[in-house]
Each structure stands twice: as structure tokens, then as C-alpha cells.
Give the backbone structure.
Amino acid sequence: EKASAIEKKYNQWLKQYPSSSFDAKNQGIYEQALSSMSFLYLKEGDEANAQKYLSQLEQVENFPIYASTLSSGLVKNNQTKIALPIAAKGYALSEAAFLSSDPKFKGSAIASRYNSLAPIYAQILSAENQYEKSADILDKFFTNNPRAKSSLESILTQTKNYQKIGRDLDAFNLLNNQLVTQGSSEIIVNAIK
């Protein structure tokens, strides 16, 4: 079904169940609807209509949660250019919460999205030929979350980044470490060749 047809149903639903009739704790379903409408229009390549939903979504406290989901979906559709600003904003907010010394922010759902947004944002940057920035983000991510080095996708993205910015020895060492710690993998062996 096209986004415009779903939007009509969405507007009917909004009329029947306006968000103003629910308290702040029960607004999540409206945020999810904004995210879904944004994604449907972005998937169709209709950035103008998507933007009206994205601009509302960017105002909600939990934006990084939705940014993570939207960015991942857009990457799967090879729409990295469209995903870039969404991932960038979500990443900045989630990183700030993750690195915060305030326990309220550090333990929040927004902070927890750092672990999904950092690699997806780095992957998007790499796909958009922003290798240096992508490498910096993954270097920080690996430092902040040592378990992230077991993510094959992040390792391969970082290897590509290192190769593109002339850090071939770092790329080799990263792949070699992956072989030593995680065991042999056809994907890793092929990446070393």
C-alpha cells in the first residue's frame, strides 16, 4: 500500500483518537506512528512528505530510538544519503546521554541506543565516502564498548575505513585480531586477501 493511502488512514485514526486525550506517558504510539509515516515516505523517495513527520519526530525526547530504527531500515533499502542526517542527530543525542555523568541520562533508553546508532551511523558515513569521520566514530565506539569489536559488520566497516584513509596496518591488525579472538571466518579471510 502506498504511503499516501496509509496517511489517510493515519489521519482518520488521529481524528478518532487525538493525542491530546492521552497523558504524556501514553504518547509512544503517536511517536511510533510518526516514525512509521516518515519511513514509508522515505522508502518511496518522497522526502517532502516524510519531512513533515520527521520534523515532529525530531522534537520527541525518544528521537534516538526512532532514529536507530529509521536509519537501519533506510540502510537496508540502500538509502544512506537520506539516512545520514537522521542517524547523525540520533547519534549525537545518544552519545551525549551515553557519556553523561548524570545517572539519569547514562541509564536512559536514549543512552542505550548509542550501541546501535554508533555502528549504523559509521556504516552510513562510510557508504557516503566519509571514511575519516566513520573511522573516528568506530574508534570511539570500540573504546566505549569493547564488546563491539566482536561485531563482524563493524569490523568490516572499520577495515574499509582504514584502507581508504591509508591506515593499512591498522586494517590488517583489526582483521587479524578478529581471527584470533573470534576464529576463522570466510568473510574475514576474504577481507584479508
Summary: The mean pLDDT is 92. The chain is about 75% helix and 0% strand. The two ends are 45 Å apart (CA to CA). The CA atoms of residues 43 and 162 lie 31 Å apart.
